[in-house]
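User: Before I run my own analysis I want an independent prediction to cross-check against. Here's the chain; please return only the structure tokens and, at the end, one sentence I can use as a sanity check.
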Amino acid sequence: MDYYGHGPLIDLDRPLCLTGFMGSRVEATAKSIAALAGVPVVELDREVEHRSGKSLSHLVLKEGEPRRRALELEALERAIAGRPTVIALGDGALLNPKAADLVANKATLVYLEWSLVELANSVRERLKENPGRYPELLLQDPPTALGLSPMLQERVPGYTRADFRVQGKGLPPWKLAQEILAWLQGGPV
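Assistant: Structure tokens:
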């Protein structure tokens, strides 16, 4: 308990990692969980940007995807070593076998699962807000479900390791957060 006599609304016995394909609102859902539950949140993509001093897009263009993934693994190791928190994984973080094993052994993994059509629509909307948001798409035409499918299929093995899956169905992040918190507390979802 702190000075004001309250602590987290839920006690995490281990870190809670959220994953999902680009456009699935992982970061926004992680922030909603943190706000609703009173626990800290770590966004791996922001940690990588902070550590490198570059945006993800700039980092990937200048130093390559392997450098991004190495910094991502370092950030994940730091986040998992700290007190239990909500961790928003980058959509490809689990492509790294070391990261996938670390999450499997030390955290609870939740997968935000959306249909490919919903993901393509969400990615297009987010790219309107921030054209450099997804480094993997910088040199491609506007994303379509068909164009995103190979990238999603590459990531599915990591996503299938999840302890819990939430069907995104275009729901707002706070609603997804409520489902995840209900599951964590053993209630109906």
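Sanity check: Residues 38 and 117 are 33 Å apart (CA to CA).
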